[in-house]
Amino acid sequence: MNITVEQRVRDQLDEFRRDGVYKRLNHIESPQAARVAMEGRGEVIILSSNNYLGLSNEPQVVQAAKDALDQYGAGTASVRFICGTFTIHRELESELASLVGTDASLSFVSCWNANEALFATLLGPDDTVISDQLNHASIIDAMRLAKAIVKCETAVYRHSDMDDLRAKLVAAKDRRTRVVVTDGVFSMEGDVAKLAEIVELSRQYDALVVVDDSHATGVLGATGRGTAEHRHVLGEIDIITSTLGKALGGAAGGFVASSAAVCDYLTQRSRPQLFSNALPCTVAGSALAAVRHLRGHPESVTRLHENTAYFRQQLLSRGFKPLEGETPIIPVILGETAKAIQMSEMLLDEGVFATGFGYPVVPKGEARVRCQISAAHTRADLDQALEAFTKVGQKLGLI
Fold first, then answer.
1. Does pTM surpass 0.90?
2. Could you tell me where the DSSP H helices lie in 39-136?
3. Is 354 in a helix, a strand, or coil?
4. Active-site positions?
5. How many whole angstroms separate alpha carbon 147 and alpha carbon 384?
6. Which of 74, 80, 125, 236 has the CB geometry, 3.0–4.6 Å to 151, for a possible disulfide?
7. Residue-number span of the structural domain to which 154 is assigned
8. d(CA 217, CA 219)
9. Sign of CA dihedral 59, 60, 61, 64
10. Does pLDDT of 21 surpass 80?
11. Beta strands in the chain (DSSP E)
C-alpha cells in the first residue's frame, strides 16, 4: 500500500510529539531585545538570541534601515551584475572588509548563501576541502554541493584535532588546492577554533584557510573583529565568511571577505550572485550602521565579555556544568532530547526563553539547553534568569 507524502509527514510529526521532541514556535510580539513580549506572557528574558550586541533594536540601526527604505525603495529588484548594485552595498562591503581585516568583501542574502557560493565557484575536481567535524550545517551542505557540481574532494578532521588535520593535509599533498575550513566559534559547543595553529599548519602545507565567523564577528576580540583578532592572526586569514544576522544588527544577509580578486570572481561566477536579487538596501543600511556603531563603541564588546563571564561562573557556582568556553554561547548538557525540551519549556514558564536542542541538531546523547548572552542584558536580567535555572534545575534533579 502506497503512503502519501502527506501521511508520512503526519506520522513523523506524531512521533516527534510522542517522543517529546516536537518544537513549538514561540511568537515574539516586540522588537528583539534582552526582554521581549511573547504570546501574552508579558516580558520574557531572551537567552536564545544571536543579538549579541543588542543592536537589532538600537535606535541608530533601526533609523538607518528606515532611511535606506526612503532613499532606495523596498527592494533591489535585480541581481548585482545587472542593476542590483546600489551605493550602499559598496559602502557596507568596504566597512566589512576593514572590520575583519581583508582587502574586500561581497555581500550575499545570507551566510548560508555565501558558503554555498564559495567552494562550488572557486574549486574544481583537482582540489580538496578539509573541514572540522563540528562545522556548521551550511559548510557541510556547501561541501556536498561542491562535490556534486564541480567534483572536488572533501575530507573531515576530528574536532579541533591538529594532529588529524595535519594527517588530512598530508593525504591531500598532491591536490592542486587544499582548503581548510572551520567555524570561528562552533555554534552548538561555544568553543573557539584553534585558528593560530590552523593558520600555521596550512602555511606549512600550502593550504588556504576559510573561516565562517558568524558567531564571532562583533563578538570575539577586544574590539569585536572576530576570531582572528581573538587568536592574534588578524589579516592572516585567506577567506572569511560571516553573517549580518547576528551581532551586526540581526536582520539578515551575509558576506565573503577576501582579496579583491576573489570577491570580483565571485561576483562574476557564483550562481547565488548571478541568479538571486541583491541584499535589500534596508538590510544593508541597518548592517552598515551596526558596523559603524561597533567600531565607535568598543565598550559594548567589553560589556558582552563581562556578562558572559558572570553568567558562566554563576551557573557553575549553582551546580550546573556548562561546557567550558569563553564565548557568549553557554550550553548546559542534559543528555536526552526530551529532557532538554522539558527544561526549556519549564524555563519559559518562569519567564526565561532558553532553547533546548537535541538530535539531529546535536549528536544523540548530547542534548542541551543553549544559553546565549547579550551585551543588552543587565545584571538584573542575568540574575533573574539564574534564579529560574536554579528553580527548574532543582525540580528536574539536575542540581
1. yes
2. 59-72, 87-100, 111-122
3. coil
4. 187, 215, 246
5. 48
6. 125
7. 63-296
8. 5
9. positive
10. no
11. 35-37, 43-46, 104-108, 127-132, 153-157, 177-183, 207-212, 239-243, 254-258, 329-335, 352-353, 355-357, 367-372
- CA distances (Å), 193 to each of 7, 48, 267, in order? 43, 22, 29
What φ, ψ does residue 108 adopt, rounded to 5°?
A: -130, 170
Take residue 193 and report the three cell numbers written for it. 577554533
Q: Rounded distance, CA 220 to CA 376, Å?
A: 16
Q: Considering the domain boundaries, does residue 252 fall inside one? A: yes
Residue 219's pLDDT is: 98
Counting the structural domains of the chain, the total is 2
Terminal alpha carbon distance of the chain: 50
- Indicate the pLDDT class of residue 399, thresholds 50, 70 and 90: confident
What does DSSP assign to residue 357? E
CA distance 349 to 364: 26
In a domain, 199, yes or no: yes
195 & 344 share domain:
no
Radius of gyration of the chain (CA): 21
- Decide if 387 contacts 45 (C-beta within 8 A): no
**Whole-number percent of the chain with pLDDT over 70:** 99
Distance between CA atoms of 136 and 328, rounded to whole angstroms? 17
pLDDT band at 258 (very low <50, low <70, confident <90, very high): very high
In a domain, 1, yes or no: no
Predicted pLDDT at 2:
66
- Asked if 259 and 347 sit in the same domain, the reply is no
